[in-house]
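Board notes (copied after class):
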Amino acid sequence: MAKATAAPENRYKLLVEKIFNETRKAQGKEATYLTFPRSAIEEAARELDIKLPKNQGDVIYAIRYRIPMPESVLETQPPGMEWIIEGAGRALYAFKLVRYNRVLPRTDLVTIGIPDATPELIRVYAQDDEQALLAIVRYNRLIDTFLGLTTYSLQNHLRTTVKGIGQIEIDELYFGLDRYGCHYAIPVQAKGGKDQISVVQARQDICWVEQRYPGMRCKAISAQFMSDERVAMFELTVQNDMVRVVQERHYRLMPARDLDRASIVAYRE
């Protein structure tokens, strides 16, 4: 029988649906934490006769950031709760039932004009994806502007591990310094296109800083493309087992000649 050739979104949903149903059946319908090995993805694909992507982890990534859980999974969620997938150790994942938690740009927040320092050549070839957003944030020093710190980018796409979670990837890691000499570790996640800011990734980034740099202040940052050359910036933290927004700002990058002088004066207030 030929391998299924449905769109990746549909194939991924079928795979996750099968893994969820079988895991829930084995571990109990009342369970709120359902663990499964990475190998379950390959097993489910074989049983459903679905062709897997070269990177099997893309199945989990898509459900976390791009597409919703299968409808049958959503139907098992109690009011105010949702299933997420998080790392549970080396080559292990878990469906975890948590309180409904979304980080979306506010629609009523003022937009702050910023002189666009992005090199023209980057503008020519930049897409609306995560890499382009990271570059724009870096060239325009938006981390510095947002946090009021002097920051330096150390590494992007940092693959590392967190005890009890397993392998994670930090989109970009900055270190910062304030006027008192305090040092900050600043993990940044960037979302472009239709990707959503991930509370799972924010939680993982914060846990990694706590384990790798105990005692150092952590500023977990998320950046997301909006419309009209706008970038939403969030500082996130974990409180009562939920990811909370500490602060949010929206910036519009524009030529310096187009800045509204009256607004620049108003920003002081």
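Comment from the instructor: The chain has two domains: 8-99, 111-267. The mean pLDDT is 88.
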